[in-house]
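Illustration 12: IAA acetyltransferase.
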Amino acid sequence: MIIVELGHPLDPQPAALLAQAQALQAEIYDAEHNHALPTDALAADDVRFFIAREGDVVLGVGAFKIYSTYGEVKSMFTSPDGRGKGIAAALMRAVEDTARAEGLSALKLETGDELDAACRLYERHGFTRCGAFGDYENNGVSVFYEKAL
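Figure caption equivalent — predicted structure in token form:
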């Protein structure tokens, strides 16, 4: 059974998953186009960080950062052992439910143009492509999504 709950990004298992995600992004994108929050920034008061676990094993992570009226989805990642188990969908539901409960009107996110599985996940969950937001710029590499809550 997959359990999704609030977690801490600096705990060993989530930190290891975040390191895997960051390594993958570094293989694909140069530093200029890599917008992942540093692991310690995911522990900030304005971030809600989730883990998905099966028993004692953390198989996925996801988060959102709170802005005035919206949340920005950050650091969604499922370990290779966890793929195909519905973990990303469960994390996405937790992110959406918590953002809604916090009174946010929308979720937004930036992902990379080569991360097809991520784009499919967001589209399955009702996100639609949008323009750059916040401090992002249209750079030909980033893909932006939003979803009203």
